[in-house]
Amino acid sequence: MAHDVPVPEPTDPLRRLEAVVARLRDPNGGCPWDLEQTHASLTPYVLEEAHEVADAIRHGDDQQLREELGDLLLQVVLHAQIATERQAFNLDAVADAISEKLIRRHPHVFADETAEDSAAVRASWEAIKAQERAQSSGVTKSASPLSDQLGSKVRGQPALAGAMTISKKAAKAGFECDDMAGVWEKVHEELDELKEAVASGDRSHAQEELGDVLFTLVNVARWCEIDPEDGLAGTNHRFLDRFSRVEAALGGDIQGKSIRELEALWQQAKAAIRAES
13-103 in CATH: which number? Predict the structure, then answer.
């Protein structure tokens, strides 16, 4: 029989969620899966839920967005519950910390400073953040302040988003090609190096060169003012749409079919999607 942990009524939804999670983590009658989880084991789920939130936003689906935000919120509450059990911090401490940070980093709203536009807000935010970082580390000046700042900023980002952040900041600091022709030259240079690395059979080297190619393509995206993450997400969606039509045309079984047959069906799927749109 499950331990009788009271669950508040929906009049306080966040506290109700907190109590539900506490019950799931209760050693006396809780959920075995939830009880096995740690901060480390939940990390992939945090990333997965964040990406699903982004996907719902891209598709403009409010109902899906509400559900995905709930899934992401669950991850926050789960981590807070695990920390509470370790007597490290609780959900209130998480909320208080972010509230204090927002107040501290918005002196143009909560104090007497001014900010004329969003660029001024970003500059103020980064300056305050750097000051906080220096105070917490005891270091007053770094020999590589921009690299330190970027290292801190991208550590929580997916690699593609991190590459864009680094590319933008480095370009703003002057580390930039003279024109688009120089960007394309770099793409072809890195692509040739990738081909050589693959041909050599050195997998580790090939992986490094693949990363260099992807980074140069992120530079292309920055120059063209397009979003590589949205571009790749769109490709994933289009590929699955076309691939599902190929599968359907073959009765759900593509095993043993020649690449020529599959390619013909692929082209038919592309044509059908274009006609529909």
Answer: 1.10.287.1080
